[in-house]
């Protein structure tokens, strides 16, 4: 058994772990490992927003265009596609890409066929909206957790391997303890979200993040489930999970949740795949931890999972959690409704 924090990222602690030195977890889990030359990754969420079935084909065509771009030189090393309906009743198709370093992402983004498409005035006159939410954590600013060691989803898809069994899990606070920066930094937020442009008027709006915005991607996969296992998951666990996700989507603002999307994986024809995950932005890691440890909406999900876990042997659960420097975030919304993503909580800068 080893620490979730890789050897080359360990340093003398000035902040203690939540678990004692003699703690031993009750079951095995693993984390993704990066080689020492992996210093920073890029997580990109590229969305298409529409309302009404008459615009679905246009939205799917835009999603396919984004994914086609992923296949060009310097595209992401791992990607997936999802659908969700937001609190305002809009459908959103999102292509999520991961890059091993910002330089590769920068070259991809600068390609004329990529930059030209995003910057074109055609995006402003389309019948659908577009957004891209980009964040680039250093390797000491994120953690992963998997109860499996193959086909790692999310950021695990661009990492170099998998750890041995790790110590820091199955107790409150273990998420923070797996982030290397937690050895010396509380990762407290500083500043506010700010918007360049007016979300109420639409058009093209840029949101600037503040220090230590936190992002969690928490996933559930059941493609290999037997019929009875699938029925158990969909009737006893998924409803509690959906209720918690809807609560954060609709009322999470007062808890410090900027945006919560509970998404279903899809293929490029928009057909569902037996995988879901939450994409959740928070003001801080502290706020995320407080919700997870104390709020009834999350505790109900926790109890539902624990009470049925042994009867769900093929259910794959995982998550990744990151915090970001202010300058390593870029959020852009084009023709989106004003509550999309981080737009809702961004303060518009006064006109010059």
Automatic annotation (TrEMBL):
Highest taxon, organism lineage: Bacteria
InterPro entries in UniProt: OXD
Entry similarity comment: Belongs to the heme-containing dehydratase family.
Identification of the protein by name: Phenylacetaldoxime dehydratase family protein
Organism this protein belongs to: Actinomycetospora chibensis
Cofactor: heme b
Keywords for the protein's UniProt record, in alphabetical order: Heme, Iron, Lyase, Metal-binding
């Amino acid at each position: 058994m080893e620490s979730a924090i890789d050897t080359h990222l360990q340093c003398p602690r000035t902040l203690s772990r939540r678990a004692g030195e003699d703690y031993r977890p009750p079951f095995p889990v693993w984390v993704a490992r990066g080689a020492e030359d992996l210093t920073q990754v890029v997580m990109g969420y590229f969305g298409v927003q529409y309302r009404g079935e008459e615009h679905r084909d246009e939205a799917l065509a835009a999603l396919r265009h984004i994914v086609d771009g992923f296949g060009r030189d310097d595209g992401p090393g791992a990607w997936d596609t999802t659908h969700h309906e937001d609190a305002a009743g809009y459908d959103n198709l999102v292509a999520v890409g991961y890059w091993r370093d910002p330089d590769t992402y920068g070259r991809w983004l600068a390609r004329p066929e990529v930059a030209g498409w995003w910057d074109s005035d055609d995006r402003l006159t389309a019948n659908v909206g577009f957004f891209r939410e980009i964040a680039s954590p250093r390797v000491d600013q994120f953690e992963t957790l998997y109860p499996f060691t193959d086909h790692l989803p999310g950021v695990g898809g661009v990492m170099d391997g998998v750890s041995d069994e790790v110590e820091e899990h199955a107790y409150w606070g273990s998420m923070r303890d797996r982030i290397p920066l937690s050895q010396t930094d509380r990762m407290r937020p500083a500043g506010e979200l700010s918007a360049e442009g007016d979300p109420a008027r639409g058009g093209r709006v840029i949101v600037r993040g503040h220090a230590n915005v936190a992002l969690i991607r928490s996933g559930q996969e059941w493609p290999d489930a037997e019929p009875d296992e699938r029925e158990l998951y969909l009737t006893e666990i998924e409803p509690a999970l959906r209720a918690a996700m809807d609560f954060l989507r609709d009322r999470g603002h007062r808890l410090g949740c900027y945006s919560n999307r509970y998404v279903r994986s899809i293929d490029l024809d928009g057909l569902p795949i037996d995988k879901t995950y939450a994409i959740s932005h928070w003001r801080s890691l502290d706020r995320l931890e407080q919700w997870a440890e104390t709020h009834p909406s999350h505790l109900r999900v926790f109890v539902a999972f624990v009470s049925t876990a042994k009867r769900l042997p093929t259910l794959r659960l995982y998550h990744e959690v990151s915090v970001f420097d202010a300058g390593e975030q870029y959020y852009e919304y084009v023709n989106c409704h004003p509550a999309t993503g981080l737009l809702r909580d961004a303060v518009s800068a006064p006109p010059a």
